[in-house]
Amino acid sequence: MAKAMTLLWATGSCPCWRVMIALEEKNLQGYNQKLLSFDKMEHKSKEVLDINPRGQIPTFKHGDNVINESYAACFYLESQFKSQGTKLIPDGPAEQALMYQRMFEGLTFYEKLSKFAYYEWYVPEGERHESALKRNKEALVTELKLWESYLQKLGSGSYLAGPSFTLADVVVFPTVGALFGFGLSPERYPKLGEYYNLLKERPSVKASWPPHWLENPKDEDKLKDALKDI
Predict the structure, then answer these.
(1) Where is each GST N-terminal domain found (predicted)?
(2) What would you measure as the largest C-alpha separation in the chain, in angstroms?
């Protein structure tokens, strides 16, 4: 079945990482894949635009079915392959409700990280405003404290929706993984650090770990100075 799937992706992209973790969890290894470069603008190539007119990645296709939004692709994979691999949507209403809540809160978490990181990476120093830097930093700190409190309430060794690994972990862990990869302090956020250490050893996460982080570990900590006070 995986042979009928194609994924166009980029290393270090949290949305791409979500889909790759989901594919691993559903035992769908062996799908067709192509690594693209943002630097070379390959996400705007005809190959991508023919499948995804927004010119974004991931770009995912299963047979004739195209699902480019990462959350949608993860839902689709769980729906189509329920009995295969890891069960990613729990049956219990309480755990399922918490899973959905954390999943969609994860979009806000990723947005706060993106605003902070992109301002640091792409706005020239001479064009930066202290007010914008302060606002982005405070928004990210508030978000981090919120997720720290969520994990504190669940207790040690828990996943985001309880004792089981779910779609919430599939879609939110890449944001957590990126933050710690960029230099977030586990001493300041011990519960998030514990969660990161738990999931980074999971086979699906290890198999889909951004390859450029493995090839050049220093590339991970390019936000270290900006994150040192967070």
Answers:
(1) 3-85
(2) 55
Residue in 228, 211, 229 with CA at minimum distance from that of residue 220? 211
Write out the two tokens for 12.
């270090």
Q: Which run of H or E residues covers position 94?
A: helix 93-122
Q: Which distant-in-sequence residues (6+ apart) come within 8 Å of 101 by Cβ? A: none
pLDDT at 151: 98
pLDDT top residue among 148 and 219: 148
CA distances from 78 to 2, 83, 123, 167 (A): 14, 9, 39, 9
Per-residue 3-state assignment (H helix, E strand, C coil) for 73-85: HHHHHHHHCCCCC
* 156 vs 229, residue with greater confidence: 156
- Establish how many alpha carbons lie within 13 A of residue 40's alpha carbon, considering only the half-sphere containing its beta carbon: 6
Our measurement of the distance from residue 86's CA atom to the centroid of its chain's CA atoms, rounded to an integer in Å, reads 18
Q: Is the separation of the CB atoms in 3 and 63 below 8 Å?
A: no
β partners of residue 32: 6
Cβ(22)–Cβ(170) below 8 Å:
yes
Stated as kind and residue range, the H or E segment containing 65 is strand 65-66
Element (H, E) at 141: helix 130-154
Best-predicted range by mean pLDDT (39-53, 162-176, 212-226): 162-176
